[in-house]
Amino acid sequence: MQAATTADAGRYFNKVCQSRINCMFYLSPGATQSVTAYLDQYGWTVDAASDLACFRLPLAFGIACGVAIAVPYRRALSHLQTTSDMGGCFTIHAKLPIAKFVRQRVTG
To answer: What does the pLDDT look like over 77-108, one tens digit per residue?
Structure first.
């Protein structure tokens, strides 16, 4: 997949950083549901999930995200599915070189 522009990334997720190497990336509820709909249709593979959830992140964070999806793959995908079912934001917490996944419920 192509690298995304900053504007494209801004439509896909929001980010909050505590430092240059410690950031949370929140996929919008629509993006979260779009990713799960694609995976439902074409298969929940490591490559597809990594491409869809991580490729728009800045390079170092995208790599950490891809590795985190590939290693504890089933756990990451269960967070994605549950978050989508709740109508929430799939969240990637990357504290380089490690990333983990969090469920965020949308309130309000």
So the answer is: 788 888 889 888 888 888 888 888 766 655 54
The DSSP annotation for 63-86 comes to: HHHHHHHHTTHHHHHHHHHHHHHH
DSSP states of 13-65: EEEEEEETTEEEEEE-HHHHHHHHHHHHHH---HHHHHHHHHTTS-HHHHHHH
The pTM assigned to this predicted structure is 0.71
Which 8-state DSSP code applies to residue 2?
Answer: P
- Residue with token string 């999806």: 69
pLDDT in tens, 40-65: 888 888 788 888 878 778 888 888 88
Rounded Cα–Cα distance for residues 1 and 17 (Å): 25
Residue 54 token pair: 């991580």
